[in-house]
Amino acid sequence: MIIVMKPNATEESIRIVTSYIESNGLQTHLSKGEETTIIGIVGNKAKLATENLASFKDVEKIVPVTESYKLANRKFHPEPSVIPVGNTQIGPGTLTVMAGPCAVETEEQLLTIARNVKAAGANILRGGAYKPRTSPYSFQGLEEEGLRYMQTAKAETGLATICEVVSLDAINAAVKYVDMIQIGARNMQNFYLLKEAGRSGLPVLLKRGLCATIDEWLNAAEYIIAEGNPNVVLCERGIRTYETSTRNTLDLSAVPVMKERTHLPIIVDPSHSTGAYKYVPSMARAAVAADADGLMIEVHNDPAHALSDGPQSLTFKKFDRLMEEIRPFAALMNRTI
Ligand code: PEP
Ligand code: MN
Q1: Among protein residues, the one whose CA lies closest to atom 6 of ligand 1
Q2: Range of the domain at 6
Q3: Interval 160-168 mean pLDDT
Q4: Predicted local confidence at residue 68, as pLDDT
Q5: In 130, 133, 140, 226, which residue has its Cα 20 to 30 A from 62's Cα atom?
Q6: Strand stretches in the chain, DSSP E
Q7: Out of 18-27, 167-176, 230-239, 313-322, least confident range
Q8: Based on the domain organization, do 267 and 167 belong to the same domain?
Q9: 46 pLDDT exceeds 80?
Q10: Pocket test for ligand 1, best of 194, 206, 237, 271 (most atoms within 8 A of CB)
Q11: pLDDT tier at 50, thresholds 50, 70, 90
Q12: Same domain, 37 and 169
């Protein structure tokens, strides 16, 4: 449940309400807006006499929060969150473009791609060093060596960096080299990994699971935030349906649904959702028009010979064109790239 305080509530009244709740063995979460302060309650509310709370000074109303996710819930935090990532941030007013190869293959490959996506206007360099591949015989990633190349690319281009993590070892390595970690679709409900990501101190990009509902996805975000890490960004990357013409089915309606349910930013990945480079630009434009906070796009210097996800990767020329095409859409949505 949340306690909505009156617009002119004093610090003292807020403190009294908060300490009362905490003295009942519950946790509080404060959200201070321009005018109103909201006190969110996390824990077993059976312990709390709510009729008492309603009579506290400056309490306007008590609203039940029936959803199981609390800290991720927009009711707890009505203002959209802004998530800092390296030298940039994700949230309202900005269209964040994360671009780069599916997998880091060589230092030279990564540097070439980093220079090109930077020149086209991307803000964050993506590159997988730990690849959770469907087949155990496919390229599994360069691991820590790949992370080191990400660090070099950051030093050279100034781009912030993101890399997927698949284990605690990968998290411990990633914190040394990159600005943001990614939990991939296949690990969205790996609750142990989510908790470790919550303790990592780095912002986390949480991709939607292959078959996850919005509710399950938000509960996964809650796992990370509950460990004390509020810096979570969601990524819609397509879900599995009966349709086989595209790799997955891009659920663009997740964008407005998430804007309603959570304060966390949401970005869209048109590469993994369509699985085909030729569909990426139109889905990228649609995502920006739907008010997504950003895009994640796979770009490769030589897609035909990429070690993973070549068919959905854009060449530099195609990525340049896509960036030009999305600029007017971003401007219409009052976002700068
Ligand atoms: C990726 O970003 O390279 C990736 C593996 O994505 P997903 O987890 O969405 O399949
Ligand atoms: Mn990929």
Answers
A1: 184
A2: 2-63
A3: 98
A4: 93
A5: 226
A6: 2-5, 27-32, 37-42, 59-63, 83-85, 88-90, 96-100, 124-126, 160-164, 180-183, 204-207, 232-236, 266-268, 294-298
A7: 18-27
A8: yes
A9: no
A10: 237
A11: confident
A12: no
